[in-house]
Prior knowledge:
By secondary structure, the chain is of the alpha/beta class. Helices cover 46% and strands 11% of the residues. It folds into two domains: 7-154, no CATH class; 179-318, no CATH class. α1 links the parallel β1 and β2.
Amino acid sequence: MKTMDKIRLGVSACLLGHAVRYDGSHQRNRYVTDILGAYVQFVPVCPEVECGMGIPREAMHLEGDPENPRLITTRTRRDVTDQMLRWAAQRLEELKKENLCGFIFKSNSPSSGMERVKIFDTKGMPHKKGVGIFARLFMKTFPHLPVEEDGRLNDEVLRENFVERLFHRKRWDDHVRGGKDLGRLVEFHTDHKLLYLAHSPKHHRELGKLVAEGKSLPLETLYERYEHLMSEALKLKATVKKNTNVLYHLMGYFKKELSPSEKEELREIIEAYHRGLYPLIVPITLINHYVRKYDQPYLKRQFYLNPHPLELKLRNHA
C-alpha cells in the first residue's frame, strides 16, 4: 500500500455511538468505529437532529409515492418533509466542501436508509421499496461516491467491495487534486487496470479505449467519462470467476521466471481458490512473493494486488 492521508467518510452519527436516535439511543457499529476507524476520518451526519427535530422525538416513517415520499410522524401525523428537504439542500452544499470519499448510512431509516426502507401506501400497508429522503438526495448529489449501509456491511463480499471502492476513490481524488493531465491519467489507469478487470472486463476494455483516444477529447470530457466508467465498473462485484481470470493473467507475467514446479504449485492454488477451498488472499500472497522475488516492475504498481491494508482482512473469506 502506498501511504495516504486518512479517508474522509460520511456516516450516520448513530453508527458512531452518538445518542441521536428518536428514543435517545444509538446504534454503534463496531466494525465502522473500531476497524474502519483506523483508516478514516468520520464526518457524522444525523438528518433528524440537524434539521431541528430534537432528542427524543416522535417516530416517523415514509408514506406515498416511493419516488417522492412524504416524511410523516407516526402519532401526530405531522408532515415534516419540507423541513427535512430545506435542511438537506443546505447540508449537501456543506458536504461538497468536505472532500468525502463515501458514506455509510443507517439501514431502514426514513431519512438515511439506502434501500428497502418501509414506505406506507394509502391503505396503511408497508412496502420495502423506499429510500431515505436524505440518502436519496445524497446519492443524487454525489453519484460517483461509494455508499453503503450498516446492515449490508455484515456481508463479506459487499463489505470488501465497499472498502475497496473507498480506497480507490481516495486515490482518484488525490490524483485529480494533483492536476488533470493525460499523461498522469495514463499512469493512474495503468496502476488500476487489473483491478478494473476483476470487476468488469467490459468496463476494463472501455476504459482502455477511452485512455488510448484521450488526445482527441477535451481534458474535462475525458476525466468526466473516465470517472463515470470507473465508478460503474467498481460497483460490480469482483466474483470468483473474474478473480480467477485475473490470477491466471498475473501468472502469465512469470512465464520465464517460474520453474515447472512453481508454475504447478501456483496453478493448483489458483484452482483451489476457484473451487472455494482457499480465500483469495492465498494466491495473492504467493503472487506478491513472486513479484518481489523476480522484481516485476509492472505488477509492483498494480493496486489489484494491494487494494487496501492487509489488516482489514477483506480477502480472507472463502
